[in-house]
Automatic annotation (TrEMBL):
Protein name: Nucleoside hydrolase
InterPro entries: Inosine/uridine_hydrolase_dom (IPR001910), IUNH (IPR023186), Ribo_hydro-like (IPR036452)
Molecular function (Gene Ontology), one example: purine nucleosidase activity
SUPFAM superfamilies listed in its UniProt record: Nucleoside hydrolase
Naturally occurring in which organism (per UniProt): Nonomuraea longispora
Residue ranges occupied by any Inosine/uridine-preferring nucleoside hydrolase domain in the UniProt entry: 5-300
Classification via Gene3D superfamilies: Ribonucleoside hydrolase-like
Length: 310
């Protein structure tokens, strides 16, 4: 039976591919999409989620905006990577998919309440919406099977030397969600940097030949160009779909059960994820953390999902 999923995201190029993988993979039942300020402003990320659904012919999945910015900090978007509209590259169509009138927090609540089994939350942006949900409806957390988050790293960061963007933007939210109760899995840069958009990957996506693939190639070409300029990586890592892939096919990403803490106060380390893989602190494990990926299988999944869409 497919796993019911709520996808909380901040599209963003890689978030679009996360939406497509969640909608196109047979082992995932995508129930709702919620958006948050992150890679772009909330109005942009919500619009871009609607564009992703429109292009791929995804119907019947409500899309609802949530938090415009972090709990305590100022929003700082990722224009140097994702462009001024958070989805640079192709000309964006006017989406036929409307935003749901409910806010993200209430959409998450309603999705959990109407599901006949526990629901997995996959979050591919800052965890602001999920933290607000945990604080607003703590009685509903038992209906969450697990929370899988693309964020953090077992090593270095990408927006500061120590912090990954999603964790750095709202570390307070990440700390709240980590302690909220449902099982928590972190998929960090150490894993996603093993899933690179090479020339072979671009050729495979292009060869699918449908509207989704054509739009996706434009996204990936832009993403590669900004990653080369900003990060010195000519082949960009496609971060967010890796979190979806773990849910769709658990063997594609390897994880370790370990201790995870979120740094909140360091002058140079705010947002850093402290992953104690060697148990040097002797603290009880509280999370699963991604350690590796079968990149070939991952790209097979992405290609197959795009092929299943419009």
């Amino acid at each position: 039976m497919p796993t019911p999923v709520i996808l909380d995201c901040d599209p963003g190029h890689d978030d679009v591919f996360a939406i497509w993988l969640a909608a196109g993979h047979p082992e995932i039942d995508l129930r709702a999409i919620t958006t948050v300020g992150g890679n772009g402003r909330l109005d942009q990320t919500t619009y871009n989620a609607r564009v992703a659904a429109h292009v791929a012919g995804i119907a019947g999945v409500p899309i609802s905006p949530g938090a415009a910015g972090p709990l305590l900090r100022r929003l700082s978007t990722a224009g140097s990577i994702h462009g001024e509209n958070a989805l640079g590259g192709p000309e964006l169509p006017v989406p036929s998919v409307a935003a749901d009138p409910r806010g993200a927090i209430d959409l998450i609540r309603d999705t959990l309440d109407t599901a006949d089994q526990q629901v997995t939350i996959v979050a591919t942006g800052p965890l602001t919406n999920i933290a607000l949900f945990a604080r607003t409806y703590p009685d509903r957390l038992s209906r969450v099977r697990e929370i899988v988050w693309m964020g953090g790293s077992t090593g270095r960061g990408n927006v500061t030397p120590y912090a990954e963007f999603n964790s750095w933007l709202d570390p307070e939210a990440a700390a709240i969600v980590l302690d909220a109760g449902p099982p928590f899995t972190m998929i960090g840069l150490n894993v996603t940097h093993q899933a690179l958009v090479t020339h072979d990957v671009l050729a495979r996506v292009d060869a699918v030949g449908n509207r989704t693939a054509a739009f996706g190639v434009e996204l990936l070409n832009f993403f590669n160009s900004t990653y080369e300029t900003d990060q010195g990586m000519p082949d960009a890592p496609l971060h967010d779909p890796v979190a979806v892939a773990l849910v769709a096919a658990p063997g594609v990403v390897t994880t370790a059960r370990t201790r995870l803490d979120i740094e909140l106060h360091g002058t140079e380390t705010a947002g850093a994820t402290s992953v104690d893989l060697l148990n040097t602190l002797g603290r009880a494990p509280n999370a699963s953390v991604g350690t590796g990926i079968d990149a070939g299988r991952f790209w097979d999944m992405v290609e197959d999902a795009i092929r299943a869409l419009s």
